[in-house]
Design a protein that fits this description.
Layout (H helix, E strand, L loop, with lengths): L3 E2 L2 H4 L11 H18 L5 E7 L2 E8 L14 E2 L4 H14 L31 H5 L5 E2 L17 E2 L11 H15 L3 H10 L8 E2 L31 E3 L1 H12 L7 H7 L4 E3 L4 E3 L4 E3 L4 E6 L3 E6 L4 E7 L6 E2 L1 H13 L2
Parallel strand pairs: 1-15
Antiparallel strand pairs: 2-3, 2-14, 4-8, 5-6, 7-8, 9-10, 10-11, 11-12, 12-13, 13-14
Helix pairs in contact: 3-6
Length: 343
């Protein structure tokens, strides 16, 4: 049975008003927070990098007692849902180049969506924006996140009005993968490498599909346990990278002009829906803490890349829990935004 603990036990003083606190003090409190959460999650390994004005001001790697080694600046971690924000960058780059529009109906690319369908709402109204914001309403066998995806896309129905309620949907991200591939005629992996990973110099970032592609830098989540990338699921999960590459990717979003304009960036960072389950606001494959000036990439098992553009700060935390402990995810994301705001 999962343990449940109130995150307030962890937060300590970090939500106090911002006063004249030294950078060293803030980073000491950040390390203490990570130590407490690591202990709670079974002495879990983690990496943390904090950068300000594009320069790393804090970097630490913890091996959790050595169950998973080596853990250092070269170690490659699976990012799970943080992968989504890389796809957000790809998508905005394609918009910048005039290849797609966020408001293109996906029927332009997927013929199965050229008819209304049997659901309560019209499949022809679903757009790329809806898929990327989890507001498409797409279901298969009445499930937004089915265990398998239909070979016949005409069996997908629209249960809620496109652009309406936020409903996390792996079916929606599957359709987004198919849509981007159909729009460009290229595999998603090739697209991401060509348009995001190589231009940004993220040399340690990529998909890893099976044991044959393992190298000594790729970490298992637990001893000998890997979760490999799978075609059809690559928008929502599957990327591996180092903590340094991930922090550099966060810094890119502060000044994204290498791939797209700041005006386009606002599309990813504006409210598209609210998740009751996660307790947070959502943009286009991003979590939003706009009241606190923060924008968060978030992945399974408490992986967080928090970008605070007004402070030119990025807080990168990658963790691999070694037990099934649970605490509230939205507050954990907020914690790292708060640390960043104090630097």
């Amino acid at each position: 049975m999962k343990k449940i603990i109130f995150l307030s036990l962890f937060l300590g003083l970090i939500f106090n008003s911002i006063s004249a606190q030294s950078q060293k003090q803030v980073l000491t409190e950040l390390d203490a927070y990570l130590t407490r959460t690591s202990n709670y999650m079974g002495n879990c390994p983690y990496a943390v990098i904090v950068s300000k004005n594009g320069e790393i001001i804090h970097e630490n790697y913890y091996d959790g007692g050595g169950a998973i080694t080596p853990i250092n600046q070269d170690s490659r971690w699976q990012l799970f849902s943080i992968s989504k924000s890389f796809i957000s960058a790809l998508m905005l780059n394609l918009v910048q180049e005039g290849i797609i529009s966020l408001d293109d109906p996906i029927r332009n690319y997927l013929p199965a969506f050229e008819s209304k369908g049997k659901g309560g709402f019209d499949r022809r109204d679903v757009t790329i924006r809806h898929l990327a914001s989890h507001t498409s309403g797409t279901t298969y066998n009445r499930d937004e996140t089915p265990s398998g995806f239909p070979e016949d896309l005409s069996k997908i129905e629209i249960a809620t009005e496109p652009g309406g309620p936020f409903l996390y949907s792996s079916l929606g991200t599957y359709l987004l993968e198919l849509t981007l591939e159909a729009a460009t005629g290229k595999d998603l992996d090739e697209l991401l490498q060509e348009r995001v990973i190589r231009p940004l110099g993220l040399t340690s970032t990529g998909y890893v599909y099976d044991e044959e592609h393992l190298d000594g830098r790729i970490l298992p989540m637990k001893p000998d346990i890997y979760s490999f990338s799978k075609k059809g699921l690559r928008v929502g999960t599957g990327l591996f990278t180092t903590a340094r590459d991930l922090n550099a990717f966060g810094n890119f979003w502060i000044n994204p002009e290498k791939l797209f304009s700041k005006e386009l960036r606002t599309e990813a960072w504006k409210l598209h829906g609210t998740s009751i389950f996660e307790g947070g606001h959502y943009g286009l494959l991003w979590w939003l803490f706009t009241d606190h000036g923060g924008y968060v990439m978030s992945g399974y098992q408490y992986k967080v890349n928090a970008v605070i553009p007004e402070k030119n700060v990025v807080v990168t935390v990658i963790r691999y829990p070694q037990n099934d402990a649970y605490f509230e995810k939205s507050a954990d994301k907020h914690a790292f935004v708060s640390f960043g705001n104090r630097l």
